[in-house]
Amino acid sequence: MLMLSFNYMVKSQSAHLDRVFHAFSDSTRRAILRNLSKKERSVSEVARPFTMSLAAISKHLTVLEDALLIERRKQGSFHFVKLNTVGLKTADEWLLFYKHFWSERLDALQELLEEKK
Questions:
Q1: Bridge partners for 41 per DSSP
Q2: What is the DSSP string of 92-116?
Q3: Among 38, 43, 99, 110, which one has the highest count of C-beta atoms within 10 angstroms of its own C-beta?
Q4: Would the pLDDT of 112 be above 70?
Q5: What number of H helices and E strands is found in the chain?
Q6: CATH at residue 32
Q7: What is the CA radius of gyration of the chain?
Q8: Which residues make beta-bridge pairs with 71?
Q9: What is the residue range of 86's domain?
Q10: Cβ neighbours of residue 83 under 8 Å, at least 6 residues apart?
Q11: pTM, whole model, 2 decimals?
């Protein structure tokens, strides 16, 4: 039973990571995240800088929400969105695991360049 639970957890984490990096893969979604890093915004404020329909922006927001990169709340007839650190933390943890690989490579490159001087 414990192994089944562990396998489900690993698959679930993997699926979440896939959703996070899929969300990051689009420049519009990255721009939305950057904009939301300053403060919570209404959906119409999020849409303002882009030359696309509100429906298209809403689809981008759904992708970001599914990846747990944003949270949405409703106040009256307005929808507001803000950053959610859960998705960002997932990506950060994954990247941190591999950081030592590229750090070692950069250190080796620096040593090589210093030897050539």
A1: 81
A2: HHHHHHHHHHHHHHHHHHHHHHHHH
A3: 43
A4: no
A5: 5, 3
A6: 1.10.10.10
A7: 19
A8: 82
A9: 2-116
A10: 33, 36, 37, 69, 70, 71
A11: 0.75
The pLDDT of residue 76 is above 80: yes
Residues in the chain: 117
95, two tokens: 């990247």
49-77 b/e with 16+ CB inside 10 Å = b?
eeeeeeeebeebbebbbebbbbbeeeeee
Work out the angle at residue 38's Cα, subtended by the Cα atoms of residues 35 and 44, and round it to the nearest 5 degrees.
50
Number of domains comprising the chain: 1
Query: One-letter amino acid identity for 54?
Result: L
Q: What digits encode the pLDDT tens for the residues 15-31?
A: 889 999 999 999 999 99
